[in-house]
Structures are given as C-alpha cells and as structure tokens.
Amino acid sequence: MFQRHFCGAGSLVRSALSAAVTMTVALSPSARADSNAVAQASLSLGFADRSSVPGEKVFTPEDHAFLDEFEQRGIQYFLDEADPVTGLMPDRAHADGGLENDVASIASVGFGLTCLVIGEERGWVPRQQVYDRALKVVTFLRDKAPQERGHFYHFLNMRTGKRMWNCEVSNIDTAILMAGVLTVRQRFPNTDLAAACTQIYERVDWPWLMNKDGTLQMGWKPESGFIDARWDHYSEGAPLIVLLGMGSKTHPLVPEVWKAWPRRPVQTHYGLTFLQCPPLFTHQYPQCWFDLRGMRDDFANYYRNSQLATIAQRHWMIEEMSRQFPQYNSAYWGLTASDFKEGYTAWGGPPADGPIDGSVVPAAAAGSLAFEPKLCIEVLRSLKERFGEKGWKKYGFVDAMNPKDNWYNRDVIGIDVGPSVIMAENARTGFIWKTFMATEEAQRAMRAAGFREITSEEVPLTETTSLYEAKP
Fold this sequence. Notes:
With 472 residues, this protein is α+β, with helices and mostly antiparallel strands. 41% of the residues lie in helices and 10% in strands. The protein has helices at residues 13-16, 29-43, 61-80, 106-122, 127-143, 171-187, 192-202, 237-246, 256-260, 281-284, 302-319, 362-366, 373-391, 414-428, 431-437, 440-449, and strands at residues 92-94, 103-105, 147-148, 151-152, 155-157, 169-170, 219-221, 225-226, 266-269, 272-275, 295-296, 338-340, 343-345, 392-393, 396-397, 401-402, 407-408, 411-413, 452-453. The strands form nine sheets. The protein has a three-stranded antiparallel β-sheet. Strands 1-18 form a two-stranded antiparallel ribbon. It has a two-stranded antiparallel ribbon with strand order 2-5.
C-alpha cells in the first residue's frame, strides 16, 4: 500500500515538488487574445466586492442543488470515518466508505472541524453533535496527542494518537489544524470547547521554526532536528503559517517574518502575470479561511493572484495539454496534488509539473470555486454527469480519475475533500470567511501583515495582469 511520508500541506511532495520552474510559453496571437477575453470576462464578476460572494451572480438553482449534495457528501466523510474515541479524522478513506488504514492527518482534522461547522450552519448536522465531536478531538489533541512546542506530528494513529511513519512535526499541518480550531471556537463562544481551542492555539510556539533570515523551516524530527526544507518560495505555507503565527498573543511571529518569505517565482502566461506554484492547492489553502478579497499588502493582491492562477491552468490544459491528451476541454480540466495511478504526486501548471497523464483532480476546480465560480462549476457538474458511479460515490468525487485509461481512484483524501467543501461554501455564502475573519487572531494578523483595502483606482476590473509588485 502506498504511504505518504511528506511535509507541507499534507506532504513534502506538496511543497518540494511545487517549487515552480520559470518558463515562457509562446502563444499565437489568437490564443493570447482568447485568453485575455476569458480573463476579462471572468474578472469582471466583481472580485473586489466584499459585500457579495463570488457565486452570487453565477450559480443557478441547479448549481446550488448540486453543491448541496456535494458539500453534504464531503461532510459525511468527516462524520463517518472519524475515530469514535479520539475523534481524529483520517488521512484517507475509500470513496464508497471504509478506512484505508488507521492513519489520521492533523491537517485533515483542521479541514474536518471547519466542514462540521458548515454542516451545523446548513442544518445538516445537529449543533450538539458538532459541539461534542469537536470537543472530543480538541481535548484529545490538547491532553494526549504528542506535540513539540505546540506543533503536532503530521500523521497520528487514529486509535491511539501515536506518531506514524516516522513523520515530522509540521508547521503547515499544525497551521491548518489551528485554522479549524479557531473556526470552531468562533462558532461556539464561551464554552468549554472554546476554552480548549484557545489553549491549544495559544500553546503553539510559532517562532520555534524560524531561521535567522526570517524564513521558516517546514518541520522537525526528534531523531535529526530541523528538516532541510524551508518555506522560501510562493506556496500555501508561508501565507497561512505566518498569518496564524502573527495572530498569536502568546508566541507571535514578528511582522518582519511576513516580509521575509520570498514572493517568487513571478511568471507570465497568456498575458497574465502572477506568483505561480503549479498545483492549485497552493493558491487555495490559505484562502479557505482568510478572506483576502479586495485586500492587498505591500507585495501582492493574493485573491486576484489565485484567480489568475486558476484561469491560467484552465487555459493551459485546454490549449496546450489537449494536444497530448485530447480529453482536456472546458469541462474537463484541473490538477492539484493528488493520487494518480502510480501513487501520490504534486502536479499542475503552467508550466507542466509532474507526471501528467490525462487525469483530472476534482478538488482542483472545487477548491477554486471561490475564485472562479462559473469556470469551476462547469467542470464539477460535467464530471458527475459524464462519469457517474465510477467517479461519484458516497463521499463525492473520487480523489482523481483518468477515464481514458478507465482508472478511477478508489479513495478520497481528507486534505482534498476539506478545501473542496469549504470553498464551495465560501463561493455561495462566504460563511467560513465571515466566521474565521471575526476572530481576534485573524484581525491581529491582517493588521500585522499590513493588509489594506484596494481602491477602485488601483484595480481596474478589466485589467488582465496581476497587481504583484516586485520590491527592491
């Protein structure tokens, strides 16, 4: 059986392999014009309008009915497969139900807690049940699970909480957990659960993994110390870890750390200039919780950046990768770290990164619903229609599929299910954005990072390039 022994948003492959290679892609004038037209049409939906949500002007009643079922099935994964004693949630399970193994992922718990809150808000899961489940897992993590200076091991045994696979203490997986913990606390204020959430968050010593230059190591092992990998490029790690660290009042990261992580590589594809990391999850994870619409710091407009990355991947798969894999089209595209026929990989683009073989990963489009609802809902509804029972099961879509080779993954993975559900809800109502951003920690972090509202003069809605500004 294939096991994941990685670090960084659920895997080292999700960080090490996602270091993008700079590449210029030549396009014909007609292709470039088409790409710009797509970008203009998409971005004119009003991405900077914080008074509404991205899907408000886009989703049809049929879309909402589909998303209801999609979210419910994803939430059911975290309900059915959680351990009844510890409350820990699995790294993966069979798409039709049943555990792959006894391994929990700390990041999966963070996503799962957030998804349970969505279920409670929607009336799909009783409030008391969500409270009891959250209290069970948070107190287990607080009192019994092994940790180092508040940071948790990436993988734990679901039954005992013991470290699995000789894995690392991981700051990105801890950060994802803490985002879920703060979301639950905000939903259940002035309770024993809220107190436990505060205790587990305020215990995290965020500066522990900081280097002298202000960048962060990715993790630590008791046998060998700090691992070599750093958060030294644009990815999911630095924004989420650093913001959560700056929001702490007990062990905060200093604001200089926000300036220290390199915003690179900056790439231009199809007339769109943006910070790039090819697998789409790297653009999605931080914004599952942090609402960055209409906001920017001194360096970038990260919400706009994620829109551009989504549009660029779509265009690249339709216009370029379809030459090799004709099945790619406007209703069949999307790559992010996932399973594939040979195991687990991080893949995406542009430029092409990973063993691309004609597969599609539903979580790629689902995780970008809050950036590009119209373009992404088309993919998801088409996948369900076309591939039915092979690709759509008890917990929603299988993690990845390659119909050309008649391969449909048997599993779902928690760190793909979670952001899919969360971003579907954010696209529809902004609920998790509203909930999480109301925490004092999120507000403190945004101030420390220097985020400010973008004026209409700064952001023409028809402009197709990002607002990334390289600093000396």
